[in-house]
Amino acid sequence: MKKGDHLFLVDGSGFIFRAFHALPPLTRKSDGLPVGAVAGFCNMLWKLLTDARDTSVGVTPTHFAVVFDYSSKTFRKELYDAYKANRSAPPEELVPQFGLIREATRAFNLPCIEKEGFEADDIIATYSRQAEAVGADVTIISSDKDLMQLVTPNVHMYDSMKDKQIGIPDVIEKWGVPPEKMIDLQALTGDSTDNVPGIPGIGPKTAAQLLDEYGNLDALLARADEIKQVKRRENIVANADLARLSRTLVTLRTDVSLDVPLDQLVLENQNGPLLIGFLKTMEFNTLTRRVAEACGCDASAIEPAPVKIEWGPAAHGPDLEIGELQAEDGAATVASPVAGPAFASAALPSGPTPADLVKARADAFHGKTIDIGDYQTIRDLPTLEVWIAAARESGLVAFDTETTSLDPMLADLVGFSLAIADNTHSAGTTEIRAAYVPLAHKTGVGDLLGGGHADGQIPADAALTALKTLLEDPSVLKVGQNLKYDYLLMKRHGIVIESFDDTMLISYVLEAGRGNHGMDALSERWLGHTPIAYKDVAGSGKSSVTFDLIDIDKATAYAAEDADVTLRLWMVLKPRLAADGLTKVYERLERPLIPVLARMEERGITVDRQILSRLSGELAQKAAAFESEIYELAGERFNIGSPKQLGDILFGKMGLPGGSKTKTGQWSTSAQVLEDLAAAGVELPRKIVDWRQLTKLKSTYTDALPGYVHPQTKRVHTCYSLASTTTGRLSSSEPNLQNIPVRTAEGRKIRTAFISTPGHRLVSADYSQIELRVLAHVADIPQLRQAFADGIDIHAMTASEMFGVPVEGMPAEVRRRAKAINFGIIYGISAFGLANQLGIERSEAGEYIKKYFERFPGIKDYMESTKAFARENGYVETIFGRRAHYPEIRSSNPQVRAFNERAAINAPIQGSAADIIRRAMIKVEPALADAGFGERVRMLLQVHDELIFEVEDDAVADAMPVIVSVMEHAAMPAISMRVPLKVDARAATNWDEAH
DNA sequence: CCCCAACCGTA
DNA sequence: GTACGGTTGGGGG
C-alpha cells in the first residue's frame, strides 16, 4: 500500500446488527432458514461496492476488508469481567446467519478478517493506523461512536445507511470534542450497552465541557478538587479509578498482530459467477438479477453454489484463518459451517463472460418469430392478479401504457400491457408471454350509441390498485420503452414506479449517433421483427382515431406486442451495457434522470397569456407597417414569407447581385445575404430582415405558446427528450423552451411572460463558459487553466496571447475576433467557417487559426488525437465515458468526412458539459431536500447550461447557494476538473430579469 | 396528407 | 465551424 491508495474497512459486525434490526425478518423460501440479516448484509455490501466507486463516498477504494468480531472472549473481558456482560445472547434466528455472512463476504471476493481475542474495532484501528503511516487514506464503514477516536484528516468514517461521511468536524459537532478526545469522553461517560462503567452522573455534554476546560482525563482527575459542583466533584474523585479502567476498555488497540498484512487487502474485481452462485443459493432473486446485470452474467447459466447450513447454537464454528482462504494453490480447505467448495477454494468458478451473454441473447432473440395471436386479453381482476403475482415472482416485467395522446400531461389511460419471461431453463431459453389489460375502451364509432363504455373491462380503479403493488415494488424490475412517458402518466394516477429500466435509454447509451432509438427501429435492428404499425390499428391523418376507440382484440395485438418487444429488446440490449463498459453511464447519467425530468415536466411553468397577447398585437402592427413599405419598395404585393418569391423579386425583378445559392439551386435569401445587400445601401433587404424577426417572434412564440397552456394546471409543460441528440444534450419540444429568444430586446420581451407564481421567484442558475472550461480541462491548456483559475476574461486573454495586445484598453473588435475563434475551436474550426463568422477572407482566417495553434499547441493536439480516436473507433467519449458515434467519419467524401471530424471534435466538449449538468440535475433535488427545502424549491426547466427553479420567496436567499454549490461541484467526485466551474444565479419574478 | 427545404430561435 | 426544434412555403403523391 502506498500514498494515494484508499482503504475501506467495513465494520462487519456493525453491518450485521444493522441489517438484522433495520429489516423485516426474512426466511428462505424453500426451507424456512432465516436469512434476513444475510440479505440485508449482501444488499448493503453491494450498494457500498457500487456506490463507493462514485457518488456516495467520493473515493474509489484500492484496498478493502470486512472485519468481524471473533467471539465475545476478548482481552477486555480478561481486564474487566463485567465487560459486555449485560449483552444478551444473539437472537436465535441470527445465530445461523453469522457463518453465512462470512461466506457472503467471500462470495463478494472480499477479504474477511477476524482475530481471536480482539474485537473488530481493534483490527480496524490497527489497519487504519498502518495505512495512515504509509500515506494512504482510510474510510471506515460504520457509524459506531467507538470508532470515532480513529478519525483524522486522513481517516474518515462513512455511514452507508444515511449516506453520510463523518470527518473531524462531524465528530466535534456530535460529541463536542475532537476525535482524539473521544477516548477520554467515553471514559467519563461510560457505555451502558457495553457495560463500561465511566463516572456516574456524567453524560456527553458534561464530559465535553470538562474536557474542554481541563484538556484531558488525567488533568481532570488530578485537578478534580477544583470542580465547583459538589456532587460532580465527589463523583469524580470517588470514581477516578473506574474512569481509568474505562479508558483502557474504550481505547482501541492499534498493535494487533495481523494475520493478513495490509498489502494483501487489495480490492479484487467482482467475481460475478462466484457471487451469483451464492446469491442463488440464498434465493435472493432481486440481488441476483442486479448483480447479473451489472457484471453481464447470465444468471440462469450459473448453478446455485452448494452451501452447507449448520443449524444450532454454534455462533462461530471452528477456527478460520483468512490466510487459508487466500492460499495460492487453491487447495485450502476451510471447515467453516457453511463452506462449500465453490467458496472455500481460491479456484474460482468460470462462467460466461459478458460478451458470451451478449451473443447468446442475440442468437436467442434475433429473427425469432413473434406470434401476435398468442397474446391474452385480461378482462377480470382475478386474472390480472395472477399475472401480477407471476410478474412479482419473476422479478422482471415489461410494462407499457396505451392512452389517448402522445402528450403524457393530456393523455387519458386506455389500457396497459405486461410481458413476463418464463425463464425456467438453465440453458437460457426464454419463453415470453404478454397480455393487454383494456380499461377504458369505448364501443364502436359507427354505432349510433357509440362512445359508451365497452363491456369486459376491469374497473380502472381496481386494476390500478392491483397494478400499483407491482409498479411500486422495488424488487421487481419494470422495463419500458421511453419510460418517462409511462412514469409521468402513472404518477398522475398516484403511482410512482420504483426500479426500472428503459430500453430506449439503453440503446441511446450504446449507440448515440447510430440511428434513432424508437421501438420500431430497435425491433428491426435487434429482433429482425417489424411490429404492427400504430397507424395500422388507429388509422392516420383525418381518419385516425384515439386508442380508446380501437377494437379490443386489435388493441391487444398491438399493445401486448409492444410489451413483448420491449422485454425482448431488454434481454438483448441490457447485457451489452456491461460488455461495452457503459453500465455506469446508463445508471448514473441516464436512468436517474427519468424521474427528475418527469417531475419537471409535470410541474410546468406559468406563462402570462395577457403579456403574450399584447406582444402579439404589437408584433402584428409593426409587421404590417413593414409589409406596406416592402410592397412599396418592391412595386408589387407578394408572399414575403416565401424565400422563392422573395428571391424572384430581389434577384430577378430588381436585378440585385445574388450572394449565394442554396443547395437546391435557389437564390439564398438568408439573413446574411440580406445584411450584405443592406450594407451595400439597398433599402428593401433590411426591412425584410426586420419583418422576418417580427413574424418569427409572433408565429413561433407569442401566438404559439398560449396554445400549450394546460387546461387544468394553467401552466406550460414542455417535453424533454433524453435520447434525441448525439452528444448527450437534452432536447425540448411541444413547446421547445430551450430556444426562447434572449439576444434582441424585442425577443427578450417574450421572456417576461414566463413568470413565477405569487409568493415565489424564478431562480436562474447558469454555468459560465462551461464548454471552454471543459476544453481547458480535456486539452489541459496551461494558459486557459490559469485564466479560469484567476477568473479573468477568457476572450481577452486569448486575444492578448494571439495578438500581443494588452488586456487593459483592448479594442472591442480585437476581443470579438478572439471570442469567435474560441467558439470556433469548440465547433471544430475551419478557415471557411471562421471567415464566414468574422466576415474576413479565408486566408486571413487561416492565419488566425495557425496563430492560435502556435499559442495553444495543446488544442491542436487535442483535435488531432480526437479525430484519430474517432477514425479508429467510430465514436468519441465524454469525460464521463458517454459515447457519441460517427459512423461516417471514414467517408470517402471529403465534405462528409470533414463534417464528421468537426462534430467528433465538438462532441466530447458539448457532451461533457451536458453530462455535468445532468449530474447537477440528479443531485440538486436530494441536496435541497437534505437542506430542508422540500417542495419549497422546485426545478422547472433546463436550457443546456442553465437551470430554472421556482422558489418560495422566503427560501430564495438560502436555496441559491445550495443550487450554485451543487452545480459547481457536479463533476465531483467522478471527475476532478482541472479548472473550476462557475455558476451565476439570479432571482426575479420573471425569466427575463432572472436570467 | 405528408415530407422536405429554407430559415431562424436557443446553447 | 457544433447541437437542437418550430414555422412556413411548396412540391409530390
Detail the poorly predicted runs: 310-349
Q: Largest sheet, if any?
A: 6 strands, mixed
Helix content: 40-55%
Mean model confidence by pLDDT: 89
Oligomerization: single chain
Total beta strands:
22
Tally of DSSP helical segments = 40
How much of the sequence lies in strands comes to: 5-15%
Report the structural category: alpha/beta
Specify the overall morphology: globular
Radius of gyration: 34 Å
Strands in their spatial order, largest beta sheet: 3-2-1-4-5-6
Distance between the termini: 50 Å
Domain 5'-3' exonuclease: 5-268
Family: Belongs to the DNA polymerase type-A family.
Keywords: DNA damage, DNA repair, DNA replication, DNA-binding, DNA-directed DNA polymerase, Exonuclease, Hydrolase, Nuclease, Nucleotidyltransferase, Transferase
Domain 3'-5' exonuclease: 375-578
Give an overview in words.
The protein has 995 residues and is of the alpha/beta class. It contains 40 helices and 22 strands. The strands form 6 sheets. Strands 3-2-1-4-5-6 form a 6-stranded mixed sheet. It binds a DNA duplex (11 and 13 nucleotides) through helix 27, helix 29, strand 15, helix 34 and helix 35. It comes from Ciceribacter thiooxidans. Residues 5-268 form the 5'-3' exonuclease domain. In addition to polymerase activity, this DNA polymerase exhibits 3'-5' and 5'-3' exonuclease activity. Keywords: DNA damage, DNA repair, DNA replication, DNA-binding, DNA-directed DNA polymerase, Exonuclease, Hydrolase, Nuclease, Nucleotidyltransferase, Transferase.
Q: What's the short story on this structure?
A:
With 995 residues, this protein is of the alpha/beta class.
